[in-house]
Design a protein that fits this description.
The chain has one domain: Nuclear Transport Factor 2, Chain: A (Roll), CATH 3.10.450.50. Helices cover 25% and strands 49% of the residues. A six-stranded mixed sheet has the order 2-1-6-5-4-3.
Length: 137
Amino acid sequence: MKPTPKDIVRDFYSSDILKDLSLIEKFFHPDFSMIWTGSSGNSYMNFKELQDFYKEIQKSYLDLQIEISHLLQDDDHVTIRYKYTANTIENPDEDLEIAYFMAIWEIKDGKIFKGYQISQPVQESAKSNSHSRSVGI
């Protein structure tokens, strides 16, 4: 049975991309493009830039964990809301909350084709006042 767009996005976020960068080719379309809005404004990323991005992340982090709170599908579009936590090379025993993300992904030919992502760094006040819950997806 062919995976749904929701399955594709869930499988990507469940994968261990830092241990196996070839997963980028498995999950992302060669014509991939993304607009990422963060605290420093908009960034635009294509497939090659995405590969380079994960290579850089791999240099600083041993592991990335994801906590998904929402995962919704509408035809070939999937919306996801999540938080990344990481273990750094400098301090592998400490879980460092990185940022909250929300993304809308378009799936084409069974791969993530186009995306719009917004991120917000986790702030100390948010960590101490966190009332988050994990939702089974």
